[in-house]
Automatic annotation (TrEMBL):
This is DUF6534 domain-containing protein. Keywords: Membrane, Transmembrane, Transmembrane helix. Coiled coil: none annotated. It comes from Hypsizygus marmoreus. It holds the Pfam family DUF6534. The chain crosses the membrane at residues 62-84, 96-120, 140-157, 169-191, 211-232, 252-274. Residues 350-366 have a biased composition (Basic and acidic residues). Residues 217-302 form the DUF6534 domain. Residues 350-380 are annotated as: Disordered. It comes from the Eukaryota. InterPro entries: DUF6534. The keyword Zinc does not apply.
Amino acid sequence: MTGFGAINRDVIVTRTISVILDARTNDHPHIRHRRGPPRCSGATMSTLPNIPPDISHLTVPLLVGSLLNYWLYGVLTVQVYIYHLSFPNDKRRFKALVYVVFVLETLQVCLSAADVYYWFGVGYGNMIHLTSTYLSPFDTPLLGSMISFIVQLFFCYRIRTLNPTRSIWWWTILITCVSITQLYGGVAGSVRGHLNRDFDKAHVHIEDANLWLIGNAVADVMIAATMTVLFLRARRQENRFTNDIVMRLVRLVMETNSLTAGMATIAVILFLALPNRNYFICPTLVIGKLYSNTILVTFNNRVFIARAVHGGHEISAFEAGSPPTLNQPQSITINVSQASYTESLKLKSLDGTEKEETNFGHRESAHVASRSAGFSGEAV
């Protein structure tokens, strides 16, 4: 028994020494390097899905859309700055419109930056983060539909100003109803996207996205067609100067509204044609910025109309918005459907002095508004 007990003690001591040596060798950096990294537990591996080989199909739309969103915000900031310098005497409601849109876009950019930080910063390489909607339901469908609704209502106001007849009144109501429909789709899609919290479930309720995006496209096409017809009616006058400026307005309306309608159409096509991909996210991220830049281009276009009125004289944005210069047009109007609307054009003289208002030779013809036609610029 004594010999058997001694053997057992030797075995126990030997096993203890081997366990200690194994622990020390496992802690040694060279041994760890040779044996590879420590294995994760089964629970950890189950909570972190493997990165798929086609991960670019998920990350590229998010990244490209976010970068375009930031770039368009920079363009919008410059546009707001030009507006602030050029037209300090605009009506308060127009100023409020511009600055409210800019505040909403600033909020949208902040939320979008938080999304990018969540997807590509703290969530780098984590598929759970990449497939999560996080704050994007608020900064894309919610704010995007709100901004497009505001801009579309503004264009309805311009249409009513250009032609306040009963037929146009009903037409603007129809455009407003379409715009309310797209707003409802954007808000509903935002709520459901926040509740689902996963891009893979974005195609569960496609009716919300269809209402939002298709509603935007339809409203923009209706606005562009209506304003183009009204401007072309005003062009039926034997005045080359007026016709040239009217055609500039027609091109501006067609280009801006076609851009927003085209982007919404592209988003719908990608959403419906590729249900297993997230390509539709890229165009939807920039829709709001396109609308906000559209309304600022419409306001700031008066600077270029003033340049045309000057017969090619270069007028910078910093020279606009002050008392008028001698021999400078003060009132140009458009006649649309037997109605005439007069609006003021106030610019600053190159030497900074104030001059008295003078008549302009084209006033007797149907006039083109300094406001890109369709809204008054008198201060209130």
